[in-house]
Amino acid sequence: MDQPSLSYVHIFTKKNNSRVREEAAKLATLLRAFQVESTFFDEREEEREQKQPQVVFVLGGDGTFLSAVHHYAPLGIPLLGIDMGGLGFLAEVSVENMLRAAEKVLQGEYSIEERMMAQCEIVHQDGTVETDFALNDVVIYRGPFAQMIRLSTYVDGEFLASFPADGLIVATPTGSSAYSLSAGGPVVFPTLAVFIVTPICAHTLYARSIVVPPTSCVKVVLESLKEGTMVTLDGQRGYSLFRGEYLRVYRASFPARFVKLLEERHFYTLLRNKFSWGIDIRKRVEQEC
Hints:
Layout: E1 8-13, H1 18-33, E2 37-42, E3 55-60, H2 62-72, E4 79-83, E5 93-94, H3 98-106, E6 110-115, E7 118-123, E8 129-134, E9 137-141, E10 149-155, E11 158-165, E12 167-171, H4 179-182, E13 195-200, E14 210-212, E15 218-222, E16 230-233, E17 237-240, E18 246-251, E19 256-261, H5 267-275, H6 281-288
Parallel strand pairs: 1-2, 1-3, 3-4, 4-5
Antiparallel strand pairs: 6-19, 7-8, 7-18, 9-12, 9-16, 10-11, 10-15, 12-13, 13-14, 15-18, 16-17
């Protein structure tokens, strides 16, 4: 699908090391050759300029991409991830293919894919409410002490269960392949719209993930008197939670927008490559030996 021509973009980074600077400089040089203005930003920038970019090139791993989503998703600005990390599940292209991919974007040879976001309200005992949003997941965790917490969970006002566990994850489809997967949750195709509710190390045999509609509101109440319990969003931002306090998670009013190249990186291929699905580990060990 042909897209409008670009005149101004951002290059978003997180780590200020020599390799990131080198690759960012290569990208800026290419952009200048196409007469496209670019500005460098990183997650430490407190204020954004008034002029908004048409596209953001994100150089880094998944953590960098999640930081960029927090800055740009509310503005509706599409992001292209350049993988310079390890797992690189959210990035569209590898750093080795960065310049070729950038040329395609500059030529309008890309589409926009929308991903569902989660909105979270944390309601404290004094009546104050903290609001934030996440692309991957909202996680309630017991904190530094090796003791379980009890979490009463409701879906659309109906009581679901009271989980004695290390915590609980409310994930989006994009986040289904992140922490939720490690806790035993299902992999969900990322462009679907659902929530996945997954207990973490629940001390009960009946605790399993449950998938609920995107119109649902998931409410989780902390019933235990345990200091250090935290609510984290995308593993990036944290909020304290105390006994009797609760959070509500529901669909955000805006999506995250991903730049997708026409030579699409298929989701199932990505799963197979990143997670070694269907690969006989024994043969690989024999070959290495």
